[in-house]
Design a protein that fits this description.
Elements lengths: L1 H24 L1 H4 L17 E3 L6 E3 L3 H12 L3 H16 L7 E3 L5 E3 L3 H5 L6 H19 L4 E7 L2 H4 L16 H10 L5 E2 L1 H6 L15 H14 L12 E7 L2 H6 L7 E6 L6 E2 L10 E5 L6 E5 L4 H9 L4 E5 L17 E7 L35 E6 L6 E6 L10 E8 L4 E6 L16 E6 L7 E11 L2 E4 L4 E5 L1
Parallel strand pairs: 5-6, 5-13, 11-12, 11-13
Antiparallel strand pairs: 1-2, 3-4, 7-8, 9-10, 10-12, 14-15, 15-18, 16-17, 16-19, 19-20, 19-21
Length: 487
Amino acid sequence: MQSGKLWKRRIFPALFLIFCLCPLLLMPLFGHQDAESEEASAAPPRLLVTDPDTGRTSLNLDFFSEAGDYFSYNFAFRQNLVTLGAELRSALFHTSAQDNVVEGRDGWLFYGSSMDDYLGRETMSDLQIAEAAYNLQLTQDTLKADGISFVFAIAPNKNSLYPQYMPTCFLPQTEMRNSTRLRKKLAGSSVNFVDLFDLFEQENRVLYHRTESHWTNEGAALVCRALLNAVGRESTDYSKISGNYRQDFQGDLFRMLYPTSPRREEEYYYDKERTYTYDEEIDSTYDPMINTTNPAKDGSVVMFRDSFGNSLLPFVADEFGRGYFSRLVPWDVSAALGDEPADVVIAELVERNLSELQEKAPILPAVDVASDVDIPEEECADGGETMAAEEDEDSGYLKITGLMDPERTQENTKTWICFYSPEEELHYLYPAYHVSEGAGEENPAELGYAAYVDTSDMVSGDYELSLVTENGGEMVRSRHLTDYTVQ
């Protein structure tokens, strides 16, 4: 009787306390495991902090809250417990333990960031969609002036292609999606656009991973061939290449949920030796910038990609003598120019990030079209246009941004920046992108514009800058907005 009371009063509480302290006490040995996602990490707390402006050192008043965050992400066996918790939640409630992972049917996982597209929420306006298409057209036309082929493709969200595996509580809103409306707009334009939605829907096989947000190797091979066909370039037909499946792939979404689970799914590997090499050592194909060389091929490519380019890059690199692959935003399309211009520029952008097409102007010097466009002599009244011109240190170009007249900004509006030299009596006219970075945070995103200008080809002197817009064939020029001196 006494021993039972002793257990209840002393031994059991002591064991419970030791059990609770284990994650902290064992942290030096079994803590600090790799985070299951970028959000699941915290830096070690510092007792003293230094103000970057004044250089003064003082006590860190947030020390204890930072210490709590650090412990919660680094205690012993954290990843094992995260995995166990996710397994229990999935088995009992059929829901995901991660906010950014949606658990579907038959073991399918979907990226939470794709839900706005799937449900037609937080969509771009019709004018923003039109401006995104306009910006792609402008990029293509600018590259075409240098003899460079351009092709654009949208990487579909997984749940856009395979909605049958989504939870039934979510009702897809296909017609409201940015991708649906932009595809329609591009279909009526001359932009060289490969519709990957149609491409995948024509396939009877599933070409995305169940536990990954991206396509499989077979999907990447299919996309590569479609892109190169669109620019008239011969490429490997992987449907005629043998291969085999291996049970060795673990998806990014699966790792977020079950970081210590040994389970894997199948991936297909082609029996083809790749002949390209990386010009410098890389950590993975997700590195920000990658250069490749392939002595067995000719031609060169510049590709702008996101995470869907991880598996796509090897297939594309194997088809060109030189390759440059970038994940940087905005796209530095000027990389395709130079003494040896690229033959092809590929731009791939995932469906959930299509708003980026209307956010920042690609770094690409505009082509002067003054000889091709009649500039109106009479200035129009002040419509609230603004303009700022400053040297962009990263690109070396003159960057011009500003606000368009809301009364003259429509879905088919074209915009140019006019440089006028009263002394030389000459004009330069450079097309501008319609992007929100020019509007700033306080104005509607649809009204912004931006352009990069290479002033090295301009006659030196003082210039008056204004904005020229065209709607339905009618062109007007704004008042004199700012000045710039070309040295």
